[in-house]
Amino acid sequence: QVHVVESGGGSVQAGGSLTLSCTASGSAVSSYCMAWSRQAPGKEREGVAAIDRAGNIQYADSVKGRFTISRDNGKNTLYLQMSSLIPDDTAKYYCAAGKVLVEVGCARVNDWGQGTQVTVSA
Asked: Which residues lie below 8 Å from residue 69, measured CB to CB, with a gap of 6+?
């Protein structure tokens, strides 16, 4: 059974960059649809980016051109490279491992991480 743990969050100024990591154990990231989502205070969780087993990728419109999702099968880790950050990107970011790519996420999620906080100041 896969278990995922996020890391890499922090505080940055607008225009800055951060890279989030999601390390998996118990199973290979290449065997799953992997996704990043985020939730800001008072808002619903929204999908940010997702990649399926075949390497198909989906991004939310709000992050296209600024965020890049990737995975390193050797390190069994999923990444989210974030650049040109804006205050609206402030949220807790979650990693998930699931079965099938659906819109900007994965259906039939096997595990959610605890999240990592990203704060972008103006």
From this structure: 34, 36, 49, 50, 51, 57, 59, 78, 79, 80, 81
